[in-house]
Write a structure and sequence with these properties.
It contains seven helices and seven strands, in the order ααβαβαβαβααβββ. The protein is α/β, with parallel strands linked by helices and 221 residues long. 31% of the residues are buried.
Length: 221
């Protein structure tokens, strides 16, 4: 590279290099977003899901999602999926891919809820999914009409909720367990700060650690 001559020439070259680096970084980031979100198993295996990259949305890592669905196993078939903090919809859509009959997906963040609906449309399963844009705590307190068939419930909120909104989360989970039909399944994801012994029926949860995540599964008799 030829040496720059004069202060302005040097500044221009430095700005140009910085701009190229930013473009390269953004390009890599965009590719990672589109490549990382996929359905892992079932009838939609390999299908891509949109993810906007918003830091408020924390999609469950693919390896954790795969491990979770391995824990749940074939008993997911015929269940009605309920994802309390749905984000882009990956858990509920994975459940349908693996045999769940329908899904209720709640997401409070409007831009993310829009992406969720786009993912549902991409899979052409609008008739199977009820997408709700709402605060899930308020939604449940209002007494929504819930399916009579057994559920598979996913609770994968921002990890800080387990610290800042512990009481609300425990009340939500306990209320859903009480309302759920027999043979329903509950899956909770947290990080290591949350004490799973606080959950209802604490001794009946199958908890596994996939650092930094901890996943617990409960089956209602």
């Amino acid at each position: 590279m030829l040496p720059c001559v004069g202060l302005r020439a040097c500044e221009f070259r430095m700005k140009k290099k910085s701009s190229k680096n930013r473009l390269k970084k953004n390009s890599h980031s965009d590719r990672a977003k589109s490549a990382g979100m996929r359905i892992i198993g079932g009838s939609f295996r390999g299908r891509k899901l949109r993810y906007g990259g918003d830091q408020r949305v924390r999609p469950m890592k693919n390896r954790v999602r795969e491990s979770l669905f391995n824990l749940i196993g074939p008993s997911i078939r015929g269940k009605h999926a309920i994802d309390l903090f749905a984000g882009t919809g990956a858990l509920g859509l994975e459940a349908i891919s693996r045999g769940a009959t329908a899904a209720i997906l709640t997401e409070q963040h409007y831009p993310t809820a829009k992406i969720l609906r786009e993912n549902v449309a991409t899979l052409d399963i609008e008739s199977l999914v009820e997408a709700i844009t709402a605060d899930v705590f308020v939604w449940f307190r209002r007494g929504p009409k819930l399916p009579a068939a057994p559920w598979v419930v996913f609770c994968s909120p921002p990890y800080d909720f387990y610290v800042d909104r512990t009481e609300e989360l425990l009340k939500l989970i306990a209320g859903l367990i009480e309302a759920a039909p027999a043979e329903s399944i509950f899956a909770v994801e947290s990080d290591t700060r949350f004490d799973f012994t606080l959950l209802p029926h604490a001794d009946q949860w199958d908890a596994r650690t996939y650092r930094p995540a901890v996943v617990g599964v409960y089956r209602k008799p």
